[in-house]
Specification:
By secondary structure, the chain is of the alpha/beta class. Helix content is 35%, strand content 19%.
Length: 340
C-alpha cells in the first residue's frame, strides 16, 4: 500500500474526493477499491491499478489468544512487526513500529541488536494500524489504544510519526483520540519538546531502565548523549507545558538493576508529581535473565512506600516473540505464504 501516492493521484480531483477515499479506506475499511462506491468507476479502476489496498502480513497468535503479532512485508521486502494485545477489559492495544530496526542498540532489546535499516514512511506506520483494524473487524472489534513502543525510536522519525498520528486522530480516518495514543522514547529530548508542541494530549513514556547514568550508559548507549538529568529536565518542561502524567518504563533485569538499593535510588529520582513507573518483567533473549516475581514485587513495594505510583505490565505474547524487546523482524526474507 502506498498512501502518499493516493494523495498525489487525487490532487487532480475536487478536494472532497480525497476525503471520500480516506473514509473508505480507514473508516469503512474497504480492502478493494471496487467497494468504494462513492467514487466513479473510472477512478476506482485507476486506484485499483496504482494504489492497491493489499497489505502483505502474516499473523502469529499466542497460546492464550490474547496476543497477535503481525509480520508485515514492506514494498522493498523489509519486514516489520506490530503487536495486538487484547486486554481483559475489552481494550485492544496495538504496539506500532516507527523504524525498521533501530539505531540505538539497547543491550536488552533484540530490535537494537539487528541494527538500523531505515525510517518508516507515514503510510507504512498507518498501514500497521489498518492491518489490525481489518483483522479485528472480522469479530466486530476495534482498536482502542495505540502505543509507539514497537521497533525503532519514534523521535528519530518524528515527521513521519507525526503525520501518521494526524491520520490516526482524524475523525474522517481512524478517529482515535489523542489520549488513547502513547509515544515511548529512549529519551530524545528534542522529540519530547516537539511532542509537547505538536500533540500535548498524547501520552509520553520514557524508557529509563536504570537509576544511575553509569548503569544506564552500559545498558543504553544513547545515555551518553541523553543523560538521566537531561531527560528529567526535559520531562519537567513537558509537564509544565502539558500538565500530563509521564510514565517511566523500567525493565527488570536479574542482578543488574533490580536490587533494593536501586529501587530506593529510583524512588529518590522519580518522587515528583505526575511521574509514574511501569515495571516490565524482562523477556529473556539470551543476554539477561528476568528478575524473579518476588524481586519485582519488592521493588514495586519500595517505590510505592516512597509515594510513587507504580504498576507492573502484563507479559503479552512471550511464546510468539511478541513481547517487549523481542521484536526482531526475523521474517526478513522472501515468503511465499504471506496473506494478501
Ligand atoms: S529498546 Fe527501543 S530504543 Fe532501545 S534498541 Fe530497542 S527499539 Fe531501539
Amino acid at each position: 500500500m502506498n498512501l502518499e501516492k493516493l494523495e498525489k493521484i487525487l490532487k487532480k480531483e475536487p478536494a472532497f474526493r480525497l476525503k471520500q477515499a480516506e473514509k473508505a479506506v480507514f473508516s469503512d475499511l474497504i480492502e478493494d477499491w471496487e467497494e468504494a462506491t462513492t467514487l466513479s468507476k473510472n477512478l476506482r479502476e485507476k486506484l485499483q491499478k496504482e494504489v492497491p489496498l493489499e497489505i502483505k502480513g502474516r499473523t502469529f497468535v499466542s497460546k492464550d489468544s490474547r496476543t497477535v503479532k503481525a509480520a508485515i512485508e514492506l514494498e522493498d521486502g523489509l519486514v516489520i512487526e506490530t503487536v495486538l494485545m487484547k486486554h481483559t477489559d475489552k481494550r485492544n492495544t496495538i504496539c506500532v513500529s516507527s523504524q525498521a530496526g533501530c539505531p540505538l542498540g539497547c543491550l536488552f532489546c533484540v530490535t537494537g541488536t539487528m541494527g538500523f535499516k531505515r525510517n518508516l514512511t507515514a503510510s507504512e506506520i498507518v498501514e500497521q494500524v489498518l492491518f489490525f483494524e481489518r483483522y479485528l473487524k472480522k469479530n466486530n472489534e476495534k482498536i482502542t489504544n495505540i502505543v509507539f513502543m514497537g521497533m525503532g525510536e519514534p523521535f528519530l522519525n518524528w515527521e513521519n510519526v507525526k503525520e501518521a498520528i494526524q491520520t490516526l486522530n482524524d475523525d474522517n480516518c481512524f478517529g482515535i483520540g489523542s489520549r488513547k495514543i502513547s509515544v515511548s522514547t529512549a529519551g530524545i529530548t528534542e522529540g519530547i519538546e516537539k511532542m509537547a508542541e505538536d500533540f500535548p494530549q498524547i501520552n509520553l513514556a520514557i524508557s529509563l531502565h536504570a537509576p544511575s547514568d553509569e548503569l544506564r550508559g552500559e545498558l543504553m548507549p544513547v545515555n551518553k548523549k541523553y543523560s538521566i538529568a537531561k531527560i528529567l529536565k526535559s520531562v519537567d518542561e513537558y509537564i509544565k507545558k502539558t500538565n500530563r502524567k509521564v510514565m517511566f518504563e523500567y525493565v527488570m533485569l536479574a542482578g543488574v538493576n533490580d536490587s533494593e538499593e536501586q529501587a530506593r535510588q529510583m524512588a529518590k529520582l522519580l518522587k515528583k508529581p505526575l511521574y509514574m513507573v511501569n515495571l516490565i518483567a524482562y523477556n529473556p533473549n539470551g543476554r539477561f535473565e528476568s528478575s524473579p516475581a518476588e524481586r519485582i514485587k519488592k521493588f514495586k513495594a519500595i517505590l510505592e512506600h516512597a509515594g510513587i505510583f507504580a504498576t507492573q505490565r502484563y507479559r503479552f505474547g512471550t511464546d510468539i516473540e511478541a513481547a517487549c524487546g523481542q521484536l526482531a523482524g526475523k521474517e526478513n526474507r522472501p515468503k511465499d505464504n504471506f496473506l494478501i
